[in-house]
Structures are given as C-alpha cells and as structure tokens.
Design brief:
By secondary structure, the chain is mostly helical. The protein is built from 13 helices and 5 strands. Bound molecules: tryptophanyl-5'AMP.
C-alpha cells in the first residue's frame, strides 16, 4: 500500500481552491492508501496571527477536514505541533538544504514582499514542510499547483540526504489534480484564490451559504468578449469558471465550453454546480461543530498514531547524520 501525506495551514477560512485543489482529493485517496493528514499550525506562525485565533482555527480546521469526508478510523488526522519530530527533523533538513534553494521559492518571495518584517521561519518554511512529508515515508502528496515547487525541493533534499547519509527517506512525488489545481480569485482571475489575501467577493468559502456562492459566481470578472472558450492565458476568468464546472460535474473543459453561447448561463450553472458540491460538506461541518470535545479526542489519538511512525524515522535520520542516541 502506498502512503500519502498532506497538510493545510489553519491561517484562514478554507476556500473553494483548498477544496478542489487538495481536500476533496485527500478524501478520495484515503481508502486506497495509508494516509496522514495534518493541520500545520507551526507553518501558520510564519506570518502574523493572533494566538487565540490560531488556537480556534486549528480546531476549526480539523472540523473541516472531517467535514470534507476524512474518516478518522481510516486516516491519521493530527495537528503538526503535537508531534515534536516535525520540528526536530526540520532542523536536520535545514542543515541539508541550502540558502540558495530556499531563496528561490516563489511562495517565500511573494509572502516576503508583502510584509515588512520577514520572519526567519518564513524562509526555512520549506524545510519544515519537507520534514512533515519525509517523516511518514510518503510516496504521494496530494496538493494544488502552488505547492509543486516545495515538493521539488522536498525531493531534492531527500535525494541529497539519502546519497550523503545512506538510504533513509522515501522520495515523494506531488499528486496534482488535472482540473482545479489552481483556482483563481473570482474578482482578480490573474491571481490564485488565497486564504492570506483579502478579497471577499473573489473568494468562495467552503462554508459560504448558497446565496453567497451564487452572488459571488454571478459577479465573477470575465472579459470584454462574449465567447465562451477555455484559454487560461487570454481568458483567465472564463477559463476559471470552466475549470470549476469541470471539477464539480465531471465534464471536460472543452466540452463544457462548447455548451455555452454566453457568460450568463455559464455562471448560473457554475453557481449551482458549486453549491451542490459544497452542500454535504457544509452540512457535516455544522453537525460536527456541536461536538468539539470529540474532535479534540480524535486529534489526540491521531497524534499518538503519527508519533509511532514519525519517531523511528527521526531516530534513523539523526543516527545517520551522526547524532548520538540519548
Ligand atoms: P495551504 O494551507 O496554503 O493550502 C492547502 C492546500 O490547498 C491548495 N490550494 C489551492 N489549490 C487550488 N487552487 C487554489 N487557489 C489553492 N490555494 C491553495 C494548496 O496547494 C494546498 O495543497 N505549505 C502548504 C501546507 C503544508 C503542506 C505540508 C502540504 C505544510 N506541510 C506537507 C503538503 C505536505 C500550504 O501552505 O498549503
């Protein structure tokens, strides 16, 4: 059985991009693979976040992961900071990765450009992400398109480590979906939909009520033409809507494009398809929110299971590098 690992930051409300780029694929993968999914609260510390908000969002994020359909009896679901090996291995990998490699990461460059005070953790973030993945000997990492570069770095670091210190880590690969890997902001279709960018009309929350979803999709920015065609470069707004329709209904983007003579009907159909896709998730999230104690119990059991795998991997890596046993 292959192993999958993936993580999500509890840094804001989960949106449609998180759902179609990652979360629904996690749910689809859980029965065929040995699966580990993680709320990466340590990564959320790399940008400013209020402590109380971080605590609340970490638990809410776990609720969302259950709501998208992860079965806690089947997957190992846990919070990153509950398993100390993540930070411990991150240090070993920071001593494996180079400044040059880390400086080339686009996500670092973009986020660093936004803030005045750039935290050291934002720079070393990809080493922690590599540690997350390598601790579980993951073969596949289901992520959206924006994480490809981090996965390439993880592979490079794993290969370098194995060559220098002996075979220790499985070299993982990214599993990026064919459609929906990069959902764009509905108001600024040249930018991806993002938790850390304030664009309320451009971002569809997984928990938005149907009327809100409809309003946002109907007002989505398209272009001055009226021709429906799939052309992400020249028609990013329309192409984004076609991708969403493809993901939500299973129809191909070209086939979907051929069905429409204008933008109005396309938007109306996208809105309904997205509402139908999100409805069961919203329903489950409302039910689960009433029993947060049970969610905390599941997370604690998940962390215990994760530690059983993470601890021997960390110990092997530490020994391979020459650290003495405690
Ligand atoms: P994060 O929290 O930003 O996003 C979680 C997942 O959602 C995907 N995603 C998108 N997919 C399609 N369209 C979008 N607009 C969109 N926005 C986000 C992301 O690609 C991601 O799969 N560094 C990671 C978290 C992380 C991680 C890991 C992931 C930490 N350790 C180990 C995998 C394995 C991040 O910030 O994702």
């Amino acid at each position: 059985m292959t192993t999958v690992f993936s993580g999500i930051q509890p840094s804001g409300d989960f949106h449609l991009g998180n759902y179609v780029g990652a979360l629904r694929n996690w749910a689809a993968a859980q029965h065929e693979h040995s699966a580990y999914f993680c709320v990466v609260d340590l990564h959320a510390l790399t940008l400013e976040i209020d402590p109380e908000e971080l605590r609340r969002r970490t638990l809410e994020s776990a609720v969302m992961l259950l709501a998208v359909g992860l079965d806690p009896d089947v997957v190992t679901l846990f919070v990153q900071s509950h398993v100390a090996e993540h930070t411990r291995l991150a240090w070993l990998l920071e001593c494996t990765a180079t400044m040059g490699e880390l400086s080339r990461m686009t996500q670092y460059k973009e986020k660093a450009a936004r803030g005045e005070m750039v935290r050291a953790g934002l720079f070393t973030y990809p080493a922690l992400m590599a540690a997350d993945i390598l601790l579980y000997q993951a073969d596949e990492v289901p992520v959206g398109d924006d994480q490809r570069q981090h996965l390439e770095l993880t592979r490079d670091v794993a290969i370098r480590f194995n060559n220098r210190y002996g075979p220790t880590f499985t070299v993982p690969k990214a599993a990026v979906p064919r459609h929906g890997a990069r959902v764009m902001d509905l108001q600024h279709p040249e930018h991806k939909m993002s938790k850390s960018v304030d664009s309320p009309m451009g971002t569809v929350g997984i928990l938005d009520d149907p009327a809100e979803v409809e309003r946002k999709v109907m007002r989505a920015v398209t272009d001055a033409e009226t021709r429906v065609a799939y052309d992400p470069e020249h028609k990013p707004g329309v192409s984004n809507l076609l991708e969403l329709l493809a993901v939500a209904t299973g129809v191909g983007v070209q086939e979907a494009a051929a069905r429409y003579a204008g933008y109005g009907q396309l938007k109306a159909d996208v809105a309904q398809a997205v509402i139908a896709m999100l409805a069961p998730v919203r329903q489950r999230a409302l039910e689960l929110a009433s029993d947060l104690g049970e969610v905390e119990r599941l997370l604690s059991a998940g962390a215990a299971r994760a530690r059983e795998v993470a601890a021997p991997t960390y110990a092997a890596a530490a020994a391979a590098m020459g650290l003495s046993a405690p």
